[in-house]
Amino acid sequence: MNTRLYINGEWATAADGGEFTTSDPATGTVLATCAEAGPKDVEDAVDAARTALHDPAWATMPPSARARLLWRVADLIEEHKADLAELETRDQGQPLGVAHSVSVNGAAEHFRYFAGWCTKIEGAVSPVSFPDTLHYVRREPVGVCALITPWNFPLMIASWKLAPALACGNTVIIKPAEQTPLTTVRLIELCAEAGFPPGVVNLLTGGPDVGRALVAHPDIDKVSFTGSSSVGREIVQASAGNLKRVTLELGGKAPSVIARDADIDKAVAGNLQGALLNSGQVCAAYTRLYVDRRRADEFTEKLAAAASGLRLGPGLAPDTQIGPLVSQDHLDQVDSYVRTGADQGAELVTGGQRADGPLSSGNFYTPTVFGGVTDDMTIAREEIFGPVLPVLAYDDPEELAARANDTDFGLAASIWTRDLSTAHRLAADIRAGAVFINMLPIPDAAAPWGGYKTSGWGREMGPYALDAYTEIKGVWVHFDT
């Protein structure tokens, strides 16, 4: 299988002939050879997007027509959902059920949700204090948007950036992670089939240099990036040349509070899923589990028993519950964190090793539970992005908010309790962009998504995405008397 770049409505190989490969993380088998965009391809894509931004075919397209295009993409995603889910599983590793229920369904829902917004992007009239003066506000497209997506949920995250950007009338260049480009390529094929005018949607595949070139380019007006906090900082610095607009959804170290009154069995099941969805490769994964000390041993034992019983395997296997990590490099990084946790005195209760036997050729890591973890340990402070669950005990509920907030991150948090007062008080006190009470950390197209502190800038999804992808213009009209 070979994939190409998509620029100005045409599929083409890289101008300099560059290529790279993407592999199945469950087996190491090469899946495809992909075009590696170079400097000329970046220039061509930016020029195409800039021209299309002002082309009447797009710039004056009625909002209802834009809505139909987005709705058509959603229909096409659903028509091809089986193939898309299988492709996502092969390229990223997530179990097929997750690819179906989260990735593909989520992608379609984002296009449908923002199709509805196309006809509802309204301005306002402001009651200014100048006599005989009308002031009104217009929302206009930001311009040319570079959308840079990660490898953990490539199809869904591409959709939650692409759909609102297009709904607001922008033109886009999407750059997927080089580890998992295949479903994004397929998504752009569906956008082409839906009928977007040439240059409105462009695709550049390749490594970090492609993303850096887009971020630094003076004709890019907006960057939306999901990924690590360290790369987010680089983007902020590189975007300073023309002070382009930036939205960042970055790393996380989500605390999960298990109150004394929680249903322990439900909390175990929920935290296991919330921590191990997509093998823990989720920015909002529950990775600091604070448990009332009087129930910590019970919780840890049940959590370890449940984790050790999960079935590892290729995502396409029907009985797989935990798939592989995305790459050998990432596997090594996760294992290094586990070794550090043990060296710093955490109690390794279960897991803590690469899978052996028939799974040894893939990037599989056993679900790992640590007990006796303290707040200063590396596994309680740094984002591991793998199947590692550190359990921390607490004595006084009054200390929880401060401990939960004692981190550079602030993307998500979780609370498990049967007491509404506890739930609402902690939800108010914890500094995180999303707080999930007695449920899993899965976002929805209608709700805001983003983080505090080094977990990012701005919000995506819901009506808040309109702020990310529009500029506000005030118009003043004086009436002569």
List the helices and strands and how they pair.
Layout: E1 2-3, E2 5-7, E3 10-12, E4 19-23, E5 30-35, H1 39-54, H2 56-59, H3 63-79, H4 81-92, H5 96-117, E6 124-126, E7 133-141, E8 144-148, H6 154-167, E9 171-175, H7 182-194, E10 201-203, H8 208-216, E11 222-226, H9 229-238, E12 245-249, E13 254-258, H10 264-276, E14 286-292, H11 293-308, H12 328-343, E15 347-350, E16 368-371, H13 378-381, E17 388-394, H14 400-405, E18 412-416, H15 420-429, E19 434-437, E20 456-457, H16 464-469, E21 470-478
Parallel strand pairs: 1-5, 8-9, 8-11, 9-10, 11-12, 13-14, 13-18, 14-17, 16-17, 18-19
Antiparallel strand pairs: 2-3, 4-5, 6-7, 7-21, 12-20, 15-16
Helix pairs in contact: 3-5, 3-7, 4-5, 5-6, 10-11
Task: List the strand order in the largest sheet.
Answer: 15-16-17-14-13-18-19
Given helix and strand content, the structural type is alpha/beta
CATH superfamily of the largest domain: Aldehyde Dehydrogenase, Chain A, domain 1
The outline comes out as: globular
Query: In CATH's first tier, which class of the largest domain applies?
Result: Alpha Beta
Annotation field: number of helices = 16
| Mean pLDDT figure | 97
For the secondary structure, the number of strands is 21
Largest sheet: 7 strands, mixed
Strand content: 15-25%
Q: Which value, in Å, is the CA radius of gyration?
A: 23 Å
Any idea of the CATH topology of the largest domain? Aldehyde Dehydrogenase, Chain A, domain 1
Number of individual domains: 2
Q: What is the name of the CATH architecture of the largest domain?
A: 3-Layer(aba) Sandwich
Low-confidence runs:
none
Q: Distance N terminus to C terminus?
A: 71 Å
Q: Could you estimate the helical fraction of the residues in percent?
A: 25-40%
Protein name: Aldehyde dehydrogenase family protein
GO molecular function: oxidoreductase activity, acting on the aldehyde or oxo group of donors, NAD or NADP as acceptor
Domain Aldehyde dehydrogenase: 12-474
Keywords: Oxidoreductase
